[in-house]
Amino acid sequence: MSTATTPAPTPTAVKTAPGREGPRLLRWWPAAVLVLLAVAPYSALPLPGLLDGPVGSPGSLQLLATCLLFGALATGYDLLLGRTGLLSFGHALYFAAGSYATNMFLLEAGLPFAVAAVLGLCSGTLLALVLGSVSLRVSGIGFSMVTLAFAQAGSILVSRNPGGLTGGEEGRAAPAELLPSWLVGIDHTANLYWIALAYLVLTLAVVHRAVRSPTGRVWEGIKENERRVEVLGLKPYGFKLTAFVLAGALAAAGGLVHLLLTGGSTPQTTTSDFTLSLLVMVVLGGSGTRWGPMVGGILYTWADHRLGDLAGSGAVADLPAVLRVPLSQPLFLLGVLFVAVVHLLPGGLARLPSRLRRTREEHR
Question: Does the N terminus or the C terminus of the chain have fewer Cβ atoms within 10 A?
């Protein structure tokens, strides 16, 4: 009696299952979005309602660059909140340190911009190391309160204008003559936009690499159960300090970009309200997700700008007082938007695709 064997399929007979090409192509969407963002300065496409002018106009590029900057800043802040479970109210301090320190090295020491930028970045990172080493001696709400106290102290110091170094409540303009010529003037807005885009890409790459590293897995364990990490023989303090310093360094780099975009250092970046805005961005987009904080930062910044224009428009001014008063307050509109998103989309905007897929599967 002979036995029949089924021949193994040849390589040419193996085909990709129908419908699988789509998910594979979707993996490349970040690269496609990056290409579109990189060529945006060359576009004359108008986007009524989204931007005031064509995409490549200086005003639109300035807004887009600011959105990218805060998308990156929220992503770096999520290293603390979403990845390690550390609620810091003083993150703005390191952002402001990068901006003010660079500006002071330019104005007071007359150093070249490249040298001043490196020293400003080092100053912000060193400040994060010093204050983080103190703040992390306590945990939970105690940690949050200590970071808030440091932030308040930094804000008061800047407003007091010691030695005329900070400019007080008016801030301090960056010296145009000490900046590279290709970064000064409305004609070079595209260059500033590309710098903001590069900062976003760098932050995403650093955060993604850090989260996927062995240290990142310890951060996840600390967020879930810090005591269990201690039982495993690891010391959470060192890992938390690493996250704190890395997030502070990324914030200081963002301060450099903000200095270039706005042409100076402003005291508003030193306040705890600034950090609260970052917190809202992260929660809005989705804390602890890869793209959520970036999306939340971009949308929040864009909405803040556009709602500010709406609040001062003639359409709102002609409304009855019962509607005109609340609608003329951009923070009120942002608050309503935030509450609506949190209520309707628990977990932030980043959870929306999975919720849509789940709903579609339930109705099949």
Answer: N
